[in-house]
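ok here's Methyltransferase:
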Amino acid sequence: MAVSNLDELSSSSQKVLEHQDETRLVGQYYDDKTARLVRKYGPGPRIHYHVGHYPSSRTPVDVHEATPDDIRRSIRLHQEGLLRYAAKIWGAEHRLSGRILDVGCGLGGGSLFWAQEYGADVTAVTNAPEHAPIVERFAQESGVGEKVRTLVCDAMHLPLDGPYDAAVAIESSGYFNRPQWFERLARVIRPGGSVCIEEVFITRPHGADVWSEYFYTKPATVRDYAEAARAAGFELVDDVDATSETAPFWEESTAWTKAVLDSDNSLSAVERRQLRISLMANQALGAEWRAGGLRLGFLRFELK
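and the structure:
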């Protein structure tokens, strides 16, 4: 075998190993965050880990006077509101009511939402092994245990057990190799089916730094997504900007963290440190959101 071919194989193997390491890192990151996610966004069964949608672009509670529980209830209400807004944009009653993939499902809030609200048969995909039994338990508690199944796997290696009517990714696609992901989706989504993405997109380099450093993700532009999708046979048919209506989430998230730090004397030193890191990240993200360095968008692609 020629030396150049050996070099190509070595490079390819290295990329595979690097991807596997990144996948394990992200899975471990979310496994480690489980208890904190439940505390902030719980108790469930529909727990979401994404921003909220605020139609008036303002917080409905006085974040300076509200208790942590008051703020948490508002956050959860507006996280559900984001899914309802997405459902309206994407025509969920006919596009997300069949067999769908929820890729990067977190603790399953979105999976339960699509199953309960639209009767979808959902495959909830996660690479965090500890999350799968939690999603299954929440699905049983919600009465949709037969409509939600969990699958622990890499999004690049979705099983070829389609066809699916659609795939949904709520603030999870930033972790994926976009060209490979769309290529895989093209093999499991039926012709005319949709890929629905709610994601944070970059508009300038610093925005990418703020987002990626805290969440270990790899943000990109809408154009990056469109090009990767087009190469795999998908067409971008919807692009809705909701940056201003989601900005208040960071104010509420910051306020919740401050309120917990001020009121909970049972926190350990480690927990206080984690909350302070979260506080600084939330403040930085809110500032970048308002400055226009990050954009929150809803995209829908159709397979030609």
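+1. The longest strand covers residues 189-202.
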